[in-house]
Amino acid sequence: MNKIIINGDIHEGVIHKNIYGHFAEHLGRGIYEGIWVGEDSPIPNTQGIRNDVLQALKQLNIPVLRWPGGCFADEYHWKDGVGPYEDRKRMVNTHWGGVVENNHFGTHEFMMLCDMLGAEPYICGNVGSGTVQEMSEWVEYMTFDGESPMTNWRKENGKMAPWKLTYFGVGNENWGCGGNMRPEYYADLYRQYQTYCRNYNDNTLYKIAGGANVDDFHWTEVLMRDAAPFMDGLSLHYYVHPGGFEKKGSAVNFTKEEWKVTMQKAWFIEKLIRKHGTIMDKYDPNKRIGMIIDEWGAWYDAEPGTNPGFLYQQNTIRDALVAGVSLNIFNQHNDRVRMANIAQTVNVIQAMVLTEGDKMLRTPTYHVFDMFQVHQDAKKLSLDIVSEEVEVGDERYSKLSASASEAKDGTIHISLCNLDTDESANTTLHIRGSDMTTATGRVLTAKEMNARNTFESPETVKPTAFTSYKRKGNFLQLELPPMSVVVLALN
Ligand code: AHR
């Protein structure tokens, strides 16, 4: 039997809304086709951005969107992506499929997208193949209001007032695709590049240093030791690929054993947060610097028959569980985790929506982000959790994952995941320190492990009302179905 106590009178800070952030790279059909179709497209669009995707994403209240990469960021030269379309340079996207990048989606288009979504931009600058001057001028172009060559150029390109830009990344994966650097070298470059990313007018940048890959604790140690005073955030990248990086496994054809490995790997990010967090604590005991998990998600082999460089994959109820477990973990570690950006919004890796021509579908992961948005900027509540465990090889993980928060109007929300493929999770939920008179909820579940939405059947997996509970005073007896994500509102 599983037990959860919500301590309604123990608040543990705020769950930063940016934990519900997203990432969109110039990769495959993520930006082009997925978001940007251009004004002349027969696909209904607003100033080039497709309406169906825009509407779907708006519903998620995306707080922050990271762009233009990823690996692409360290090969991106922003000046090629501003000005009249006919003058924009065509280049090769060497990282992702070797296709032509026509630079039609550039700074102005990205900022317009953020405006339309009501999301804050998070821009990643080029350290790997760009200069200090180029990065410095990009910040000047976007944020300076006075008289300067970059400001004048921005105005010539139709934008009179500067944009507000808070989040700025100084390079991406500089241990790998961002230049194959050693941490000591990158730490010095970080210090140098960030110096010239100025705060203009009343715009204050939140500068994010490129962080470690998975369990490269040495990287975190060196960055914190050598560059902590110069950063506001340090990133961390972690992907779940059940078969390992080389042969990741299929997104839709998998066994129960692979399901378990996937869940164990999803839980693993908690260990990473703790260990990287311990190193950060050593240099930053007051937790001024945010851990920014700006790439995460379940990454499988590309769907057969698609360009392997486009990283297009389907999305099943298994991915909904990966999202639910990860978001619960980020919520639980709100003292250090200030932002997270799932990879990658549309048509790439663990996407919110998939498109095919003029069709669009919402994935199971989309629905998890929709259900969990109640936690954005809510007060985190302390939880005591007793859960059955699952063994996989030498590892064990909890079958139940949860986090809880209190909204401004006093409503308590709890998000719960039952990771078991076969058994319901019978769970006693006790709300102490607060009174409850009503409980309502939604559940996302499926009968098959690989249940998914397709263009023929786009609503196979979608949330429904959750009614499998009995209430007695401040106790709820819950029956969480196998493979389910449940969010309850308690008043
Ligand atoms: O998200 C796909 C790629 O994964 C990103 O471009 C890179 O940063 C990471 O290795």
UniProtKB/TrEMBL annotation:
For this protein, the record's Gene3D superfamilies field holds: Glycosidases (3.20.20.80), Golgi alpha-mannosidase II (2.60.40.1180)
Q: What are the boundaries of the signal sequence?
A: none
- In this chain the Alpha-L-arabinofuranosidase C-terminal domain maps to 294-484
A Pfam family hit: ASD1_dom
As one GO molecular function, the record gives: alpha-L-arabinofuranosidase activity
Q: Does the keyword Hydrolase apply?
A: yes
Task: Identify the metabolic or biological route this protein is part of.
Answer: Glycan metabolism
Q: Which UniProt keywords apply?
A: Carbohydrate metabolism, Glycosidase, Hydrolase
Q: Which GO terms describe its biological process?
A: L-arabinose metabolic process; polysaccharide catabolic process
Q: Which reaction does it catalyse?
A: Hydrolysis of terminal non-reducing alpha-L-arabinofuranoside residues in alpha-L-arabinosides
Q: Which family is annotated?
A: Belongs to the glycosyl hydrolase 51 family.
Q: Which PANTHER family match?
A: ALPHA-L-ARABINOFURANOSIDASE C-RELATED, INTRACELLULAR EXO-ALPHA-L-ARABINOFURANOSIDASE 2
Binding partners and assembly? Homohexamer; trimer of dimers.
- The protein's name is non-reducing end alpha-L-arabinofuranosidase
